[in-house]
Design goal:
By secondary structure, the protein is mainly α. The chain is about 80% helix and about 0% strand. The protein has one domain (about 30-225, about 240-450): MFS general substrate transporter like domains (Growth Hormone, Chain: A, Up-down Bundle). It has helices at about 1-15, 30-50, 55-60, 65-70, 70-85, 85-95, 95-115, 120-145, 150-180, 185-205, 210-215, 215-225, 240-245, 250-270, 275-280, 290-320, 320-340, 345-375, 380-405, 410-430, 445-455. The protein is globular and about 60 Å long.
């Protein structure tokens, strides 16, 4: 049955394609899509922005590493928990209002965090920041997938490119502003998010992506450019639709993979500044916010490059599941090596940057797998998946510090590697639920068929 649907959609896609037509360019997008992508990049800056200033905050606010890493935990946990309900919100107040509400909350709480005088207050305001982030990100992913030209693969690559740019620029901005004051990155984010808010307010004149955010194929087609028909208004989601979505075996499996993968991801991201600074101190080298910002800029830049340029090629040639298995194995190896060479500054720096190459491919492939794996509305699928993965990421910083204190500096990395191995096991066990996403798409016709079958 799945094959019949795929073949039917492939024929329909071919029938509507002019013989001389060329594949749509990822850079040819509606202005509103670019506005959302810019806001996504700024939003993801908030994840890596605090990385270079963690050690600085520890000194300035007299906090332990375990306390400062809670800046990640409060942010990610509230982001993840809220994402289970964001589709319910967006189907009631609309896509544009949801996007703007999220951005406004980020501006407010980033400003309050920068004005705080205790680590507890900063942790609390980062939680509020996470709520705004959830409202924005979960809606933005579904909106971009529905509104961007070139199909869902192009849209996901664009979204992951924004993610990569944000993760790359965040540490650089955090390091530059953090070298002046630890408060600088928070106020800087507030200003950039205010600019993004204005851009969305001005450029997204009507909620053209509303149908797409609801997740139907018809909504996506309307948002992609039917001039004669307005997109249908999405049905209102139930309050607990995000939790109910986990009954879908494919989504549950991929969410579990994402949970354990993101644990390893955020062990690397949130914990690494501390062993890097300790290794530099042992060599008598000054390694402050600026230097840490450069290291994680390299990491984020590597992630951005592979998410845009490498991931699409690999997934088309090899298929999604083989790419996921390969990247997860590579990330596990990086984490093991980080634990072994935790006292070597050059090795730590190089392994962090190299891991970005693998993480970029992994993020894009995993997001694409979620979008293709189920027949659930995109808004529900993306919110549920994102909620689970962010909660997995939230746990990592909370436990990495105490593990390091109790068992040694290298052990958090090994625990992260073990978590990645669990995600590999889950992916293998779930094979029968994910067989339909495991095929490579060698031609444009086959790719079009797979995308439309996933959208239907």
């Amino acid at each position: 049955m799945a094959a019949t649907v795929t073949e039917t959609h492939a024929r329909e896609a071919s029938a509507h394609r002019s013989p001389a037509a060329k594949p749509a360019s990822i850079f040819r997008q509606p202005t509103a899509v670019w506005a959302i992508a810019f806001a996504c990049a700024v939003s993801f800056m908030g994840i890596g922005l605090v990385d270079p200033i963690l050690t600085l905050i520890s000194r300035e606010l007299r906090a332990t590493p375990s306390e400062t890493m809670l800046l990640f935990t409060s942010y990610l946990f509230i982001t993840g928990a809220a994402m289970f309900f964001t589709n319910w919100v967006s189907t009631r107040i609309g896509v544009k209002a949801t996007l703007l509400s999220g951005l406004a909350l980020v501006v407010l709480f980033a400003s309050l965090a920068g004005a705080s005088d205790s680590v507890g207050a900063v942790i609390g305001f980062r939680a509020g920041w996470g709520l705004g982030n959830a409202l924005f990100i979960s809606t933005a992913l579904a909106a971009i997938v529905g509104a961007a030209t070139g199909g869902s693969r192009q849209a996901i690559v664009l979204y992951e490119a924004a993610l990569g740019v944000g993760l790359a620029v965040g540490p650089l901005v955090g390091g530059a502003l953090g070298s002046v004051s630890w408060r600088g990155p928070f106020f800087g984010t507030a200003v950039l998010m205010a600019i993004a808010l204005i851009a969305i307010l001005v450029l997204l004149r009507k909620p053209a992506t509303a149908g797409a955010a609801g997740g139907t194929a018809e909504g996506a087609a309307a948002a992609a450019g039917s001039a004669s028909q307005a997109p249908s208004k999405p049905a209102k989601a139930s309050l607990f639709s995000g939790f109910a979505a986990l009954r879908n075996r494919a989504l549950l499996s991929l969410s579990a993979v994402a949970f354990f993968y993101n644990f390893g991801f955020f062990v690397l991201l949130a914990y690494s500044p501390y062993p890097i600074e300790a290794a530099a101190h042992a060599l008598g080298v000054t390694f402050g916010a600026h230097e840490l910002g450069l290291v994680f800029f390299g990491w984020g830049l590597a992630l951005a490059i592979t998410s845009v340029l490498v991931a699409p090629v690999l997934t088309r040639r090899l298929g999604l599941r083989p790419v996921l298995f390969t990247m997860l194995a590579g990330i596990a190896v990086c984490l093991v090596l980080l634990g072994v060479f935790v006292d070597s500054l050059p090795v730590l720096v190089w392994l962090v940057v190299i891991s970005g190459l693998l993480l970029g491919v992994m993020n894009t492939a995993l997001t694409e797998a979620v979008m293709e794996a189920t027949d659930l509305p995109r808004g529900v699928a993306s919110s549920t998946y994102s909620g689970v993965r962010f909660i997995g990421g939230a746990i990592a910083p909370a436990v990495a510090g105490p593990i390091a204190v109790a068992f040694g500096d290298g052990v958090p990395y090994w625990v992260g590697a073990a978590s990645i191995l669990v995600s590999i096991l889950v992916l293998a066990i779930a094979g029968k639920h994910l067989a339909h996403i495991g095929r490579p798409h060698e031609s444009a016709e086959e790719e079009a068929g797979a995308i439309t079958a996933g959208d239907a």
